[in-house]
Amino acid sequence: MGKLNVTVLRYLSKEDFRVLTAIEMLSKNHELCPGSMVAVVANLKSGGVHKLLKELCKHKLVSYERGAKYDGFRLTNTGYDYLALKALTLRGSIYSFGTQIGVGKESNIYTVSDEEGKQLCLKLHRLGRTCFRNVRNKRDYHGKRKKTSWLYLSRISATREFAYMKALYDRGFPVPKPIDFNRHCVIMELINGYPMTQINEVIDIDQLYDDLMNLIVRLGNCGVIHGDFNEFNILVTDEAKPILIDFPQMVSTSHENAKMFFERDVNGVRDLFKKKFGYESEDYPKFEDLEREDDLDIEVACSGFTKEMEKDLMDEYHGSELDDEIDDVSNSDDGENEPEDDEEMINQYKKQVENEVKYSEQSVKNKSEADKNNGILK
Ligand code: ADP
Ligand code: MG
């Protein structure tokens, strides 16, 4: 298991930060960013930028690649990590870094500490890293968003995870306490427990089975389905209580495939108990029996996600099994067209880089101020 390379957090200069931020902005509509354009957006002399880019390449925060039409730079995972971790450190949510405690399907998990020395859990979302090509091809075929990048997908994933975790935590669900997020990083309470995968003995098996099924029903009555309710995403504490984690793929009970998702979660628990403990029960929840008591799904949907974002992420998480249905129902263009390489766009990016730099120099202590800078539609 790798360690998070945080030494770069210390030695990078203000200019390095400017350059990285400029590439991040340009990545919204450039797979590769030409050096000259980076210089303009970073508002630095192009000769100087070249030297900076060379150093950043050496430290593997950016990479230089050859494209079909032109060559250019792109942010690496490490470069993007740096930007997020710097923001989280500046606003005091992270004080020091610990070690990697897990590798999920689409994430890396680390321990970190806050200023009081309290241990927390840091989740770095890593979407579309391996199947970027697939996603892009799919889009090209359908003639839709052509620049679905891992930066975008990872950021949406983390933002959704935080939004769901907060809505669940506020309602008293057994989930980690959400602490903060930025870009593709989420900071949450570190749970003292083990994933179900590592648990082979349970004192009261009926109780755990009931707790899990009741959890699925309680979620359903709030209008949501976890969507990946498996033994890796259920942590069990020393008191034998289940804690649910991993939320970016959650869906509304109003989703057209909701029944299928719900049954998959329920059957997952049934199969797991049968396989692991030889436990079978005829008592399990049915989708038809859900009674809506709350609109958690709507609350999260209202926190700023567009339909487009939802669809991109669902494609990524739930895959091709849903492709046809999704494409059928959502052909509406929400007007989010790709911006052109015009002066206006460049000026806009320039301004955003200035804002990021100013914000990073203020060393924001005030979280509500910081939250504004997390604007997911930025
Ligand atoms: P992925 O989306 O990649 O599956 P998860 O959120 O499921 O990522 O996390 C992967 C693993 O990291 C989990 O199976 C668990 O072992 C560990 N983990 C995640 N969040 C926490 C947490 N808050 N406290 C303790 N361990 C955690
Ligand atoms: Mg998981």
UniProtKB/TrEMBL annotation:
Residues 322-344 have a biased composition (Acidic residues). Coiled coil: none annotated. GO terms for biological process: maturation of SSU-rRNA. Residues 66-289 form the RIO kinase domain. It catalyses: L-seryl-[protein] + ATP = O-phospho-L-seryl-[protein] + ADP + H(+); L-threonyl-[protein] + ATP = O-phospho-L-threonyl-[protein] + ADP + H(+). Residues 321-344 are annotated as: Disordered. Its main location: cytoplasm. GO terms for molecular function: ATP binding; metal ion binding; protein serine/threonine kinase activity. Keywords: ATP-binding, Cytoplasm, Kinase, Magnesium, Metal-binding, Nucleotide-binding, Phosphoprotein, Ribosome biogenesis, Serine/threonine-protein kinase, Transferase. Its cofactor is Mg(2+). Belongs to the protein kinase superfamily. RIO-type Ser/Thr kinase family. Associated with late 40S pre-ribosomal particles. Interacts with PLK1 (via its N-terminus). This is Serine/threonine-protein kinase RIO2. The chain holds residues 1 to 378 of 542 of the full protein.
